[in-house]
Design a protein that fits this description.
This protein is of the alpha+beta class and about 375 residues long. Helices cover about 50% and strands about 15% of the residues. It folds into 3 domains: about 110 residues, Butyryl-Coa Dehydrogenase, subunit A, domain 1 (Orthogonal Bundle); about 110 residues, Butyryl-CoA Dehydrogenase, subunit A, domain 2 (Beta Barrel), CATH 2.40.110.10; about 140 residues, Butyryl-CoA Dehydrogenase, subunit A, domain 3 (Up-down Bundle), CATH 1.20.140. It binds flavin-adenine dinucleotide. Pathway: Siderophore biosynthesis; mycobactin biosynthesis.
Length: about 375
């Protein structure tokens, strides 16, 4: 079906992003996966073609665009190229929106130019060893001491945490026994602050080009001017930003599932079984037809959600539905496409194997599928 959300400008931008990916991402991905992170100069290169600052106001060197559609083009193209750049995507799709929404004038002056020119790399630290889905239970504390907060606690699974210059940390600044959601704040920790300790770059089964860190905050003195938004209002801010983050994950899920179908079609046309191309067998045709139909359904949801996001009407429950459907569909589709590849699909040198491993996490991060179902069922009055 013809998509109707993009203009000629988006498509021209798409062409240049596609060329950039073919030159700068596809050939380098194996090296980044072996290293366990994306080199910093990559962020400078994406900045040069205007990707990093799309939504940053132009006085800070950004593109000043309100719409999320140009960002969507970038993440779709990365997915179509069968790549998942977790750290890069979290930096721009998850963390930057908090700065765009909540940074004050002085913070904008300090940080926006670095986001726009690619010299700043960021991460967000919500999850703790004992707390993931139940975010209201955060135990990291930030106690006010004069002009500073003293930050103590441990975070884990932090994408981009090994290399980040700025980490937004969710910490408890006060306790309300009646309401655990109250009293959480967002503090921006800078990479060189004493007491900020980066632990292991965790070994994962997929998303290997993105660093995933354990972080410790041991009496880190964070100036109060690094408080993002209002003290005690983090839960509200997180709830406000999560729909866009969840839609971004859905977009990547759909795009990588699309890449898998294209890989399976190419493979099925080339591979001979029982003396004829695999694509000639009715089962192959039917499996891929089912996959194409699933992609179409996901696309309709994503495009509708993008219109709602740009219009300011994307609800948490709707974003949860889109993430739930697209990431569960991604898993089904990529699994079927791997099956089409037979034993070769299980070999790491085949991109379908990477897609399979990378896909597993989209049903976990940004809120698990079970959490999505909780959000949706709450909106149904259940
Ligand atoms: C590769 C990777 C990158 C990540 N990047 C980041 C990052 O950059 N920043 C960050 O802060 N976090 C990050 N995370 C953490 C991620 O968001 C959490 O793993 C996720 O929210 C789940 O939390 P948990 O792992 O503690 O699982 P738990 O919350 O312990 O959940 C365990 C199981 O219980 C289920 N469950 C939980 N609550 C309910 C319920 N109410 N009803 C039914 N079932 C339930 C879950 O769905 C899951 O199946 C990342 C994780 C991974 C794997």
């Amino acid at each position: 079906m013809q998509r109707t959300i993009f203009t000629e400008d988006h498509e021209a931008f798409r062409d240049s992003v596609r060329q950039f990916i073919a030159k700068e991402i596809t050939p380098n991905l194996p090296e980044w996966e072996a290293a366990g992170f994306i080199p910093r100069d990559f962020y400078k290169k994406t900045a040069e073609i205007g990707i990093n600052g799309l939504q940053i106001p132009d006085q800070y060197g950004g593109g000043g665009i309100d719409s999320f559609l140009f960002n969507t083009v970038v993440y779709e193209e990365i997915g179509y190229a069968a790549a998942s750049l977790g750290g890069f995507q979290v930096h721009l799709n998850t963390v930057l929106p908090y700065f765009l929404e909540y940074a004050g004038e002085e913070q904008r002056d300090r940080w926006f130019p670095g986001f726009a020119d690619g010299s700043l790399v960021s991460a967000i630290a919500m999850t703790e060893p004992g707390i993931g889905s139940d975010l209201a239970g955060v135990t990291t504390t930030a106690v006010r001491d004069g002009d500073d907060y003293i930050l103590n606690g441990n975070k884990t699974f932090i994408t981009g945490g090994i290399n980040a210059d700025l980490v937004i940390v969710v910490a408890r600044t006060s306790k309300d026994p009646e309401n655990r959601r109250k009293g959480l704040s967002l503090l921006v920790v800078e990479g060189d602050m004493p007491g900020f300790i980066r632990g292991r770059n965790l070994h994962k089964i997929g998303m290997k080009s993105s660093d995933t860190a354990e972080l410790t905050f041991d009496n880190v003195r964070v100036p109060a001017r690094n408080l993002l938004g209002e003290e005690g209002a983090a839960f509200k801010m997180l709830a406000h930003n999560l729909p866009q983050e969840r839609l971004s994950i859905a977009i990547t899920g759909l795009a990588t599932a699309t890449a898998a179908v294209n890989l399976a079609i190419d493979y099925a046309k080339e591979r001979l079984v029982f003396g004829k191309p695999l694509a000639d067998f009715q089962n192959t045709k039917f499996v891929l037809a089912e996959c194409a139909t699933e992609l179409q359904a996901g696309q309709a949801l994503v495009d509708q959600a993008l219109i709602a996001l740009d219009g300011g009407t994307l609800t948490p429950a709707d974003a949860a539905k889109v993430k739930l459907f697209c990431t569960e569909m991604q898993a089904r589709v990529i699994d079927k496409c791997l099956q089409v590849h037979g034993g070769y699909g299980y070999m790491s040198e085949y991109p379908i194997a990477r897609l399979y491993a990378d896909a597993r996490v989209t049903r976990i991060f940004g809120g698990t599928s079970e959490v999505m179902k909780s959000v949706i069922s709450k909106s149904m009055g259940l």
